[in-house]
Amino acid sequence: MTEKKEFQGIQYLIYYPKNYKEGEKYPVFFHLHGAGSRGKNFENFTNSVILDILEKGDSPLSRCICVFPQCHEDTWYCIFNPLMELCKHIYNEKFTNQALFNGSGISMGGYGIYQLMMCLPNLFHKAIVCCGGGMYWNAGRLKDIKIRIFHGKNDEAVYVQDSHNMFNKLKENGADVTLTVYPECDHNCWEKTYLNYDNLEWVIS
């Protein structure tokens, strides 16, 4: 079951597991999309590989709450304060297993989820970040979050060096982090990443 909701001007989709029961707690998958899904309606979500996976109902994500905010401005940073408030709102919902609150982001959303985790590091358990980057000099704020980073070697939209920079600083700070660089891939590394159900099982467990 998927609902359309709004919080402080941010529209978002929320997916509930098939056997969802009020009063029970579930892992949460909080995902920030890339630039191609910006807007004020959800039509731009139609090519989302994660939503396609949820429709099939056979992935590990089908066992958790999935939250998909939509950026209605140029970047996530333009609406960052309400985005943080939405994140805290979901974290404090009765259905949230706070020990299993997880982040995810692709491209523009990869930058956004890094920044969100840096501002709210105590909320997040694990994260998957695809072709993102950010203020790697602040990577110490993420040292207690388990992170898997993915990037295409031939990416010309977000250079793979951005992921190397974050990975190296995370390692320096003792973080539990891995970096996977797909040698034949350009910008769209997220399909390979999310269609690998091992990554989805890892992030919610």
Structure notes:
Strands 1-2-4-3-5-6-7-8 form an eight-stranded mixed beta sheet, sandwiched between helices. The protein contains six helices and eight strands. It has helices at residues 49-56, 80-91, 108-119, 160-172, 190-194, 197-204, and strands at residues 2-7, 10-15, 26-32, 65-69, 96-106, 126-130, 146-152, 177-182. It has a single domain, classed as 3-Layer(aba) Sandwich (Rossmann fold). It starts with a strand and ends with a helix. The protein has 205 residues and is an alpha/beta fold. The mean pLDDT is 96. 28% of the residues lie in helices and 26% in strands. Strand 1 (2-7) and strand 2 (10-15) form a beta hairpin.
Question: TL;DR of this structure?
Answer:
This protein has 205 residues and is of the alpha/beta class.
Search tags:
globular, 8-stranded mixed beta sheet, 8 strands, single chain, 205 residues, Rossmann fold, alpha/beta, 6 helices
The DSSP helix count reads 6
State the strand order across the main sheet.
1-2-4-3-5-6-7-8
Mean pLDDT: 96
Class by SSE composition: alpha/beta
CATH class division? Alpha Beta
Work out the helicity level: 25-40%
Beta strand count: 8
Shape: globular
Number of domains: 1
What is the chain-wise order of helices and strands? EEEHEHEHEEHEHH
Straight-line N-to-C gap: 21 Å
Radius of gyration: 16 Å
CATH fold name? Rossmann fold
The CATH superfamily appears as Alpha/Beta hydrolase fold, catalytic domain
Low-confidence stretches: none
Topology:
Layout (H helix, E strand, L loop, with lengths): L1 E6 L2 E6 L10 E7 L16 H8 L8 E5 L10 H12 L4 E11 L1 H12 L6 E5 L15 E7 L7 H13 L4 E6 L7 H5 L2 H8 L1
Parallel strand pairs: 3-4, 3-5, 5-6, 6-7, 7-8
Antiparallel strand pairs: 1-2, 2-4
